[in-house]
Amino acid sequence: MNAPTTNIKALVVANPVSGHGKAKRYLPAVADMLEGAGWSVEALRTERAGDARRAAAGFDGGLIVSFGGDGTFNEILNGADLERSVLAVLPAGTGNVLAKELRMPLNPLRAARAIINGKVLRYDVGNACGRRFAFACGAGLDAHIVRLLHSGRTGNITQLHYLPHLLKNALSPPQWRIGVEIDGAVHDENANVVCIGNTKSYGGPVELTPRADPGDRLFEVTTARVESPLDLPVLALAALSGGMAACNYARCAPGCRIKLSSSRKDTPYHIDGDFAGTLPLTVTMETEQMRIIGAQRPDAREPLLPL
In what order do the strands lie in the sheet with 62-68? Predict the structure, then answer.
């Protein structure tokens, strides 16, 4: 059953920097398309970090559309009232991980049409020390690369910007020793790569947690140790082929309460692709799922009700 096209109150939060200005260029056309479906639309362009979160927190219920990257959606997720709001994604960022998981078109107008004709899915939401996340939380090598990249950021980021940092750290991997506890049991004591995934996708074609299901109330946890430049290509091949669970270099297990610790105070972690701090870290599953428009899990679909 298609979503009804009337009586929808929508807030579109656009990050004008995302996608080399894609969100800024397409915002008027997107708003027109949603209004043409009979929706009441409020459009907002963010100007600084935190604007998307504040806009979502101030919205009095309805549909909130994130028009930007995964960072913009994470802000909205952390500001939104999940009981009163349905969320949606118009991809305009670097990774667009959640949009890929939801099978949203990359063209903004096609994505807007997909939202109008979409279904509501119920997705699990992670919580990392009080901050919600949609697709993943990670610690160690990948978080270190994210921290390096964002510390020197001067403009829009593309996938190619990650490559120099990845190659440099592959030649000389940081030797953190991360302890991982899953639901009270020790899973790993010597990792320097940890991914706590709510979705299969981790960015582009990479799947670090290929058995993750965003509706099963569990995370998939993957840990590994990169000791030498020869280790990373093996892990990369497994991640690109969906074979991480069978890779001898990695350990994978499900769980809903994850504790990460390290003897070093500089061991970084990220949340939904943004550097977020240093260990220790406790990750849990939020009691309430979010409602989000997409078509990833047909068995979990329900009509988009007037809001």
Answer: 40-45, 9-14, 62-68, 85-91, 290-294, 119-123
